[in-house]
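Researcher: Go.
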Amino acid sequence: MSSHSQSTFTANQESAEKLRGWFVIDATGKPLGRLASEIARVLRGKHKPTYTPHVDTGDFVVVVNASKVLLTGNKLDQKKWQRHSGIPGGFKENTYRSLLESRPTLPIEKAVKGMLPKNVLGREMFTKLKVYATPDHPHAAQKPQPLTVNI
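Model: Structure:
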């Protein structure tokens, strides 16, 4: 019998921050849901062998060309974004077509946020998402690597 026992690796916050990288994704022509699930996977860190569920081991993700994301079928006109201000008569409703014109980053942010954990850790992961409507972004100094999404 061997005296060596295997131990399970568990990442901690310090080791996770040292291994944190930056990725850039071009959203042009990519379906919204499939793109969002891939972004959420990278934000959580599930693409790494050091993934630990209770530690934020994910990377930063920069999404460019968010205004050119693809919504399949009739979702541009049938899917609605709803919100309520909390006062009587404060219900507002917009189609995703008008939403992409006025706030083009919101559909991707909303889809990714719904795929992250609903707790403090999920909110911390969401802060690592940077979405831009145009191909320009201010994160060139971090040298983000292009992330290929097989969709």
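Model: The two ends are 48 Å apart (CA to CA).
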